[in-house]
Amino acid sequence: MTESDSLPSVTRRQVLKGGAALAALGGVSAFVAACGNGATPSPSAAAPSGGTSPSGGIAPSAPLASTPPAATGTITFGSNYSDDVPKKAMQAVVDGFTKKTGIAVTVNTVEHGKFQDTINAYLQATPDDTFTWFAGYRMRFFAAQGLATDISDVWSSIGSNYADAFKTASTGDDGKQYFIPFYNYPWVVIYRKSFFSEKGYTIPKTITEFKTLGDKMKTAGLIPLAFGDKDGWPAMGTFDILNMRMNGYDYHIGLMAGKNKWSDAKTKAVFQKWAELLPYFDPQPLGKTWQEAAQDMIGKKAGMYFLGTFAGEQATDPAIHDDLDFFPFPTFGTEFDAESAIDAPIDGFMVSSKAKNLDGAKAFMEYLSTGEAQGIFLASSPNNVAAAKDADTSKYTPFQKKMAEIIGGSQKIAQFLDRDTNPAFAGANGMQGFLQSFLGNPTQDLDKFLSGIQAFYDTLA
Amino acid sequence: MTTDALDRAGTAAAVKRRRSRPRYGTHAFLIAIGILWILPLAWTIYTAFRPYGETARLGYVSIGGQYNLDNFFNAAKGMDLALHLFDTLIVVIPAMILVLFFASMIAFAVSRYSFRFNVAMLMLFTAGNLLPQQVVIVPLYKMFTLLPLPAPFSDNGLWYDQLFGIVAIHVAFQLGFCTFVLSNYFKQVPKEINEAAVVDGATVWRTYWTVLLPLARPALAALATLEFTWIYNDFFWGILLLRTGSKLPITSALNNLSGQFFKDNNLLAAGALLVALPTLIVYFALQKQFVAGLTLGSTKG
Amino acid sequence: MTSPSSSSAPLAETSGAFAPPKARRRGRRGPRFSLLTRRDKVTLGFMVGIPAFIHIALIWVPAVLSVVLSFTQWNGIGGIDKIKWVGTKNFDTLINIYPPFWPAFSHNLIWLGAFLFIATPLGMLLAVILDQNIRGSRIYQSMLYMPVVLSLAIVGFIWELIYSPGQGLINNLLGIAGTKDQIDWLGNRNLNLWAVLIAAGWRHVGYIMVLYLAGLKSVDNTLREAATIDGANARQTFFRVIFPVLAPINVVVLVVTVIESLRAFDIVYVINKGLNGLELLSVLITTNLLGEASLVGFGSAIAVILLLISIGPIILYLYRTMREPAS
After folding, report:
1. Which has fewest Cβ within 10 Å: A22, A201, A266, A319?
2. Axis-axis angle for helices B137-146, C61-69 (nearest 10)
3. In whole angstroms, how large is the CA radius of gyration of chain C?
4. What is the DSSP string of B262-297?
């Protein structure tokens, strides 16, 4: 497209002229003249980069890292921390890295929803050296597609700073590490302490106690459990916990991996139980975002809220944040109560397969694996807990201490439905819509509903 | 002769009768419809002028309390209005000019000269314009992420995530409509004008540039108004083909206002109005052109 | 199009475009291409070639590729060599398995039906009323037409303010906002499509009205007067006199209505990304394409279905508009 050569000048001129269309056409005529002169298309730019990207685990284009510590220069970092507070916190982490190593970091922040929607094109076409991402199948998928760089060498030096569970969560299908865990957070039932004591409510340990409490709240004119599923994913957390409580972690993970079936009677039982519990949920979840649902709980319109602890971000008033507390989802009296399984998704970082400054990128990964870096971030985001062992937990708020306690007390930790299963199945295209369909019509024929889900899952295999 | 005159007199009387009888029913209907039509925008404006706290205190359907411009300032700041307005204009203005320029060239060629593919060409363009965008997006998306585009048009070497790419796709899609309208327009220009130019020894280019194009001024003005609005209003291509937040066109950027912490409809109302303002101004200032553009495309041919 | 004399077969006429110069009668369209100088030919070549290249490369090439890709499976990652040929499997999955397909398809049909049988006739009715010399006609026209300049995305935002359960106009007027009985207009999957259709119709009615108003301007007033004298009432005048004259506009309006219904995207995407009762074919294509693992072949198959549906009205439009007018 050689005609493009003179376009920007025209464009700028037009802007100055302020859209006087006819006068402007004069400017464009110069543009066509330019076209006539060099009509041959010029594929002069380097060979197409996206489509021919290697499918192997390691990008051959990366320079050989012969002397890892001698990293210099600049690296690029694609961040999905687009909200104000975490964005500033991430900038502080980056500044800490630059100060320590002298390596400059160019941060390209993209709105988090957009970041996820476009990750596929981004990693193939125009990836930054490093980028924010999530552990689980979601990470392994991109590693297997050859879009991430193996960072096992980094892990060999930082490995001792992480519990084994974190290393497992960072490992791809080929047994190599592709991910640096930064922090995680549990999915729990959040409530306001003052509200509970004012009303004389006690924390329900079992599902029976939960129902009794729910009935009390309903008579008091409250919604027992706030809920908002407009965006499609929050309901996944509810499914995860019900499935793990009723069928256990192994069944759940097997289901995510396709070993167990959606059409199985065990899976059906989960939806039946869910339908039975729905009267305790907000009756109108599908028009509400999680933020609105969190406000219901904060505003004492709802008694409790089951969500990741990031719901705490919604309590912008520190006094109210201090008033928040939480407990694990009630147990169901099954053999799986003991494993105290929980969703505790891990957020972290990866190196793209096209990283230009691989040494710098790895140095950045190494820094991000330190308790120091994680501490900088968590200072302004007290709704997560650090992943590294050497993180300074003495500065944790009670909220964070409890998070660490609950995660520590769980035998089995899942990531989250959309992080544990095939991304093509988990997205707006699949599970999000299915769960909304269930919530919109919980009395529908579950066999038909679940065999439809299974059939769709099978087409993706 | 006499019957004719009678007829006319009768008609005139009939017409007069029709006009003089006050039609309360019709007016009541029109007023009701008019109010219904204005209500959504009026409600938006009313909500936008009230601080969130006031509506929370008094209720949304209420009068009184404070009215101020805070929501507008906050919305402009929250959505980075100036930046995204600039992004939008940097797409809209070149795209609008290029579309009119290219369309007028094709329209000129196919309506003033007979050559082999005239009709096929026009059909192709018109059909292309009517195609739902989603029919082409899957391959287009892959093309944009694979095709190289050199600097300075692209800061990443590709068509994807570039305003240039957005301009290109707008030009491609809008060409159909404008070509259709302009070729109908050119066809009405008497051939003698062409021939006079040829006698003067003018080249094809000069005939187009100095003779035909100036004659098409009214049609171009109408189309420019229309294209400005359409391209300005685009939401889809920005969502699909852009990634970097700071490049998003203004309608897509409005999405970012949708409450990070709580849903503040007053703020959203102000944001929506700010985004709609340029098109509303264009509409009120150039309503005639706007309507003319639309009807040019529908009534001719 | 090239020749007024052959209204029914314009293509046949053009195929003889390089006829010898003597075949050219005076008063026909401009000079034959073959009469031009070499330089003029090159100029014309560029004038047509560049825009045609852009249009074909960015619209028709992808449209054809959509059809090709619809028979393949590809997660969009890696080179072309990763594309797997799967025959008609995608269509089979779409029609027999993929749960959102039939809801989306029927939502598109409902959309079309509501536009065709409610919004379009209302626009026509308003045009007919406003075409009579009514006091304040211009003001009414401006009011009714205003939503047309707003993008469907903005229309979505504006109507969210009306429909919002707690903060919206309707629930507050009904006095149920914030109570247990509040209606979730956009969240309830049995209501939300209709709520959205009202919002989209708000815009569509004005658009149709303008098209018909323009058409009515061309109705010869004496026809109307003659009908009045013959004792025809308003309804008879409309159906026997005005409506037939509007036939060409009817086609344009029909096509505009169908295409707009198939294109609908922005408004549902703004409201809830086209989930939960607002599924449309256009949205399904987009969600299959965007996302962490795109289903390129599958999304293309939906695009092909959309293409097949839109071909009919497009051909109808081409047929009606490309025919040379009788005059």
Report:
1. A319
2. 110
3. 25
4. S--HHHHHHHHHHHHHHHHHHHHHSHHHHHHHHHHH
- In terms of C-beta distances under 8 Å and separation of at least 24 residues, what long-range contacts does A202-205 make, across chains too? A203/A327, A204/A330, A205/A330, A205/A331
Both tokens assigned to A275:
């339908």
Q: At what angle do helices B24-48 and C192-217 cross, to 10 degrees?
A: 130
- Choose from B113, B225, B248 for mutation: most chain C CBs within 10 A: B113
Q: Compute CA distances B155 → A356, B80, B144, B149, C38, whole Å.
A: 16, 21, 14, 9, 40
**In terms of Cα–Cα distance, which of C1, C218, C250 is closest to B301?**
C1
B199–C contact, CB cutoff 8 A: no
| Cα torsion angle, B209, B210, B212, B217, sign | positive
Q: How many Cα atoms sit within 13 Å of C53 on the Cβ side?
A: 12
Encoded tokens for A450: 């679940």
Whether the link from the prior residue into C100 is cis, omega within 30° of 0, is no
Spell out which residues of chain A touch residue B142, defining contact as CB-CB under 8 Å.
51
Nearest residue of B to residue A83, measured between CA atoms: B260
Q: What are the pLDDT tens digits along chain A (461 aa)?
A: 333 333 333 333 333 333 333 333 333 333 333 333 333 333 333 333 333 333 333 333 333 333 445 567 899 999 999 887 888 899 999 999 999 999 999 999 888 888 988 898 889 888 999 999 999 998 999 999 899 999 999 999 999 999 988 999 999 999 999 999 999 999 999 999 999 999 999 999 999 999 999 999 999 999 999 999 998 999 999 999 999 999 999 999 999 999 999 999 999 999 999 999 999 999 999 988 898 899 899 999 999 999 999 999 888 888 999 999 999 999 999 999 999 999 999 999 999 998 999 999 999 999 999 999 999 999 887 889 999 999 988 889 999 999 999 999 898 999 999 999 988 899 888 899 999 999 999 999 999 999 999 999 998 87
Chain C nearest C-alpha distance from B128 (Å): 7
H helical segments located in chain C: 10-15, 38-55, 61-69, 89-96, 101-114, 120-131, 137-145, 152-163, 169-174, 192-217, 221-229, 234-236, 243-245, 247-263, 266-272, 281-289, 296-322
Helical segments of C146-295, H only:
152-163, 169-174, 192-217, 221-229, 234-236, 243-245, 247-263, 266-272, 281-289
DSSP E strand stretches across A67-128: 74-79, 104-109
**Which of A109, A126, A296, A316 has the highest number of chain B CBs within 10 A, making it the mutation to test binding with B?**
A126
Neighboring chain B residues of A291 at a CB cutoff of 8 Å? 259-263
Q: Which chains touch C (3 or more CB pairs under 8 A)?
A: A, B
Q: Which of A353, A350, A59, A53 is closest to A177 using CA atoms?
A: A350
- The 10 Å Cβ neighbour count of residue B99 is 28
Contacts for A204 with CB less than 8 Å, ≥ 6 apart: A210, A212, A213, A330
Report the distance separating Cα A398 and Cα B71, nearest Å. Answer: 36
Encoded tokens for A301: 């319109």
Task: Give the side-chain half-sphere CA count within 13 A for B113.
Answer: 28
Q: Structure tokens of B234? A: 């685009």
Classified as helix, coil or strand, B211 is helix
By the 8 A CB rule, do C66 and B136 touch?
A: yes
- Contact list, B235 vs chain C (CB under 8 Å): 151-153, 266, 269-270
Q: Could you tell me if C203 and C152 are in contact, meaning their C-beta atoms sit under 8 angstroms apart?
A: yes
Which uninterrupted H or E stretch holds A26? helix A21-37
Which one, of A130, C23, A402, lies nearest residue B114 by Cα?
Answer: C23
Nearest-CA distance A80 → chain C (Å): 14
Distances (CA, A) of C20 to C16, C33, C152: 9, 11, 52
What is the complex's ipTM, to 2 decimals? 0.85
